[in-house]
Amino acid sequence: MNIWLIFAGVLLACLVPCGIACLRGDAVDRVVGLEAAGLIATLILLLLAEGFQRQPFTDLALALGLLSFGGGMVFARFLERWM
Length: 83
Hints:
Layout lengths: L2 H11 L1 H9 L3 H25 L5 H22 L5
Helix pairs in contact: 1-3, 2-3, 3-4
């Protein structure tokens, strides 16, 4: 176990408040929770790629970063009438 994996575990615990914000709250809180969870998940995947010394896994993290932003924008567009 190295420092990269420890920090990935710490960030994994930070996903819990994002999940609570997505489950409880109005539409704006849900979009903010979704965007924050996408950012944290991207950082977790980058830390895991560095911790396991698997550089091709960084492509997965970068794809998640791009797609989570797009997914948040689609979610905001879908819930536009309540925002």
